[in-house]
Design goal:
4 strands; four-stranded mixed beta sheet; 8% strand; 8 helices; alpha+beta; 226 residues; Glutathione S-transferase Yfyf (Class Pi), Chain A, domain 2
Length: 226
């Protein structure tokens, strides 16, 4: 098998790429990176010195591809499947990239800030940074609410890379910073994403690890069962 995706089963950015792979039924194998294990961490730093996951290795092409959006675009160009996650039309592609960035930078990143702050050592918490992260999520939620008032998926009628980014970001963000009852379109969009077979598969694979999630105590019960 040519493709190996290096992941952690709980990581939202890894989920984004897994959704893209499952959408197209692309053959690959996954390998969990344990950054707490010196051997696993050192091997991963050889692949990508930044140390972030996921990272894709294409053995046939002898290439290592990093960063989620780049990985998905690489997969579409080099290992295409039936689902086109980046539109051919240039304007539609730009719109997809825009919303992909919005979900990554203004939902996933602040969500991660809130989550990781909960497990910082005593005396090392960043209350100001967490407050900023909650405010960023409020801004992003309002933008998504407006966008989804007129769309089925993030940029229109087709499921794209932007939706791959949205699903894990909104799944976790809704736990640490609930949407609120007034964001009906955002809530319906999140629920629509969670019914997508590729997303359901990713969540099912992550479920055995939810006990490790710092906000496990406030996860909705429906997330914890099949």
């Amino acid at each position: 098998m040519s493709l190996t995706l290096y992941i952690h089963p709980l990581a939202s950015f890894c989920h984004k790429v897994l959704i893209a792979l499952y959408e197209n039924g692309t053959p690959f194998r996954s390998e969990t990176v344990d950054l707490g294990d010196p051997g696993s961490a050192a091997a991963h730093m050889e692949r990508w010195p930044v140390g972030k996951i996921p990272v894709l290795h294409d053995a046939q092409a002898k290439r290592v591809i990093s960063e989620t959006s780049i990985i998905i675009e690489y997969l579409q160009e080099s290992h295409p499947g039936p689902v086109t996650l980046l539109p051919a039309d240039s304007k539609a592609r730009l719109e997809t990239r825009l919303w992909d960035r919005l979900f990554d930078l203004y939902v996933n990143v602040p969500m991660g800030k809130i989550v990781t702050d909960r497990i910082r050592p005593k005396g090392a918490s960043d209350a100001f940074g967490v407050t900023e992260a909650h405010a960023t999520l409020d801004t992003a939620y309002a933008m998504i609410e407006g966008q989804m008032s007129a769309h089925d998926w993030a940029t229109g009628k087709d499921f794209t890379m932007a939706d791959c980014a949205a699903a894990p970001a909104l799944f976790y963000a809704s736990i640490v910073h609930p949407f609120g009852s007034d964001r009906r379109h955002l809530t319906r969009y999140r629920d629509r994403l969670l019914e997508r077979p590729s997303v359901k598969r990713v969540i099912a694979e992550a479920r055995p690890y939810f006990s490790m999630f710092p906000y496990r105590d406030v996860m909705p019960e429906r997330y914890l069962t099949e």
